[in-house]
């Protein structure tokens, strides 16, 4: 079988899919990112999510709001150096 994808590979693939010309592909990518948002928070996801709030597609805007909500529910982590 093939190699397992890393989380960052999956996220990057989904972020790339957000630019797809087919609305169904973009919507599916948002669904997946929204589900993953509790486990991961990256600058790329935040920037993409904020940009999506201005999208013409109401489904994409709705998923972006839901993703932000899940991100805000995540417990904060603190780096100690």
From TrEMBL:
UniProt keywords, alphabetically: Repeat
InterPro entries: ARM-like, ARM-type_fold, HEAT
Listed name of the protein: HEAT repeat domain-containing protein
Species assigned in the record: Rotaria magnacalcarata
Phylogenetic lineage: Eukaryota, Metazoa, Spiralia, Gnathifera, Rotifera
């Amino acid at each position: 079988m093939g190699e397992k994808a890393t989380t960052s590979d999956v996220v990057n693939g989904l972020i790339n899919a957000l630019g797809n010309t087919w609305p169904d592909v973009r919507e599916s990518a948002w669904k997946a990112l929204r589900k993953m948002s509790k486990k991961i928070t990256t600058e790329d996801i935040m920037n993409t999510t904020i940009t999506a709030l201005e999208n013409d597609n109401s489904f994409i805007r709705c998923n972006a709001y839901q993703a932000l909500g899940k991100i805000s529910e995540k417990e904060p982590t603190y780096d100690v150096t």
